[in-house]
Amino acid sequence: MDAAGSLLARLQREQADARREQLKDHVMLLGMIISEVKNREIEVRRDATDDDVIDVIRKGIKRRRESVEMYANAGRTDLSEKEQREVTALETYLPAQIDPEEIRAAVRTAIAGGAANVGAAMAKVMPLFKGRADGSTINAIVREEFARG
Question: What residues contact 17, with CB distance under 8 A and at least 6 apart?
Answer without folding.
Answer: none
